[in-house]
Amino acid sequence: MKRHQCRIVFPKVSDVLDQDQEWIFVERNGRMQKIRLHNYGDLYRIPGLYEELFYEKLGCDSPNVVCRLLARAMERHGGPDSLRVLDFGAGNGMVAEKLNELRNCEFLVGIDILEEAKEAAERDRPGLYDRYMVLDLAQLDEFNRKRLQSYGFNTLVTVAALGFNDIPSRAFLNAFNLMRKGSWIAFNIRDKFLSQGDDSGYRTLLERLQDTCFRILDQTDYCHRRSITGRELCYRAIVGQKTADADIDGLFAGRSSG
């Protein structure tokens, strides 16, 4: 992979910043640019910056944790010999690359809402995906729904994308319903979104999914990455199987569509 010619500078900030408020300076060609860590498009435009920032400097381990948890669950519970994967919130392809190392991926489709993500995946990991689509699954039209269903997915992975207004819960449910019954679902989410005091709606949503259409087979709590001040950001990785389609309108009855 071609690497950027720039320098990452961490600001001196208080530890009260949440992870979607964090920012850095990037010094490049004699100019200093301020970039929020959740402005992924700005990060993807600079080759190798995303990897250096999140994985080398902040120790992000989520692709490894989630993909290994999925592979282990498949070994224990009899997963398919070959995977037809929807990588939702695919970014520049790091999750698909790890999963492809661990399991036989017959067919890989990436979806992200950012054009910059697709460009970065094609630039940094050419040939990894069979298809890469820039789509907003929260507004999934019938043409693309049928097109995606025709791919016959048996695995959905969503890593470091739920919460913080990155992927709305309705978009995740639309992706969930693209899977066949019995498909494998693997994702992670910040621990605070599963706590008693959660107001994001994800805790209630997961409970309702478990009651109606999703069976958890394995899960683990771990450090997703460090904050820019060195604090551990704890997540939960979850792997399970779809048992039925989600009743999306029913799940959102009485609450906003997140």
TrEMBL record:
Lineage: Bacteria, Pseudomonadati, Thermodesulfobacteriota, Syntrophobacteria, Syntrophobacterales
Protein name in UniProt: Methyltransferase domain-containing protein
Any single GO BP term: methylation
Superkingdom, natural source: Bacteria
Entries under SUPFAM superfamilies matching the protein: S-adenosyl-L-methionine-dependent methyltransferases
Coiled-coil annotated residue ranges, if any: none
Gene3D superfamilies linked to this entry: Vaccinia Virus protein VP39 (3.40.50.150)
InterPro entries, A to Z: SAM-dependent_MTases_sf (IPR029063)
A GO MF term: methyltransferase activity
Alphabetized UniProt keyword annotations: Methyltransferase, Transferase
